[in-house]
Amino acid sequence: MPYIKIPKGWEIPENQVTPESDYINRRTFIKKMGIASIGGLSLIGTTACAKGKGVEGQLEAFRAQPLAATHNSQFTVTRQMTDEVVAATYNNFYEFTMAKDRVWKLVEQFETRPWEIEISGLVDKPMTLDVDELIKQMPLEERIYRFRCVETWAMVVPWIGFPMKALLEKVQPKSSAKYVQMVTFMNPDVAPHQNNSRLPWPYFEGLTLAEAMNDLTLLVVGIYGHILPPQHGAPIRLIVPWKYGFKSIKSIVSIELTDRKPRNFWNVLLPREYGFEANVNPNVSHPRWSQATERMIGSGDRHPTVIYNGYADAVAHLYQ
């Protein structure tokens, strides 16, 4: 009987995928150069950019800090992976600027070590953890996810992290916990756009506890085989691949479990345009533009938007 492969909802035809060997060969080269893994390396936490060398110079420092992670082939998207340089130079990080192509230039003074993350609220074991100690404790895995912005652009990114539920199980949520509220850093001295008093800084987001415990929900500490550069939300960020990107809060400092539905940053600013769920849906237009298609950053290819960004098999039951 012939083998018949039934593709996952998020998969695209094989002829559009970047050969995995091309991606792995770069990581193999780094290892052959004798560069240590994160466990034995003194992390760079001062200047993020290499002045005068552009983004490639900036990335050198982070490529020199690889993360040992198991590649999870269950989460592999058969669409061309976004080039690392492209992904590093096209970012929404409004704490620094609203210009996507300038974020990487403005994170130079953003120090992401040392860094602590507090988990509190309706839990039996509240704790505050150093992010590097947390990395050592958690089983890291690499997952290639589709990433979709509410502005209709998209990427395919190899994230490294651990399921959020692994951290939540560590603190033991109380039965009364229904939601998860997350908050990012506040430092206007290094993040110039936080000086804009018309915006409700620091950035905050929320999920239902069921969403946070879903297998897809990832707390990310690395990308492209190494630790996160600051423009990607170093040292720890959220990735919720079936939701629009603004839900995936960057540079988290606190996680609080609560019995009340938390507000989220963009809903406070523009409640008619940004809801709490923010699930990718081609049938629900943004008030100012259609969500029917998406544009791949780098290639410029345009594809039809897929409900839940193609992850319906894993998450649709949450919304029935």
Task: Summarize the topology.
Blueprint (H helix, E strand, L loop, with lengths): L19 H13 L21 H10 L6 E2 L12 H5 L14 H4 L9 E6 L5 E4 H7 L3 E8 L4 E11 H8 L7 E6 L19 E5 H4 L5 E6 L2 E2 L9 E3 L12 E7 L6 H5 L23 E4 L5 E3 L7 H4 L5
Parallel strand pairs: 1-4, 2-11, 5-12
Antiparallel strand pairs: 2-3, 4-5, 5-8, 6-7, 6-11, 8-9, 8-10, 12-13
Fill in the keyword field for this structure.
9 helices, disordered N terminus, 320 residues, 8-stranded mixed β-sheet, alpha+beta, 5-stranded mixed β-sheet, Sulfite Oxidase, Chain A, domain 2
How many discrete domains? Answer: 1
Q: Structural class, please?
A: alpha+beta
Helix count, DSSP H or I runs of 4 or more residues = 9
Q: What percentage of amino acids are in beta strands?
A: 15-25%
- The CATH class turns out to be Alpha Beta
Task: From the 3D structure, determine the CATH topology.
Answer: Sulfite Oxidase, Chain A, domain 2
* Mean pLDDT across all amino acids: 88
Helix amount: 10-25%
Assembly status = single chain
How many distinct beta strands?
A: 13
User: Which regions have little confidence, pLDDT < 50, spanning 5+ residues?
Assistant: 1-6, 12-21, 28-52
Helices and strands, in order, run as HHEHHEEHEEHEEHEEEEHEEH
Major sheet size, sense and barrel closure:
8 strands, mixed
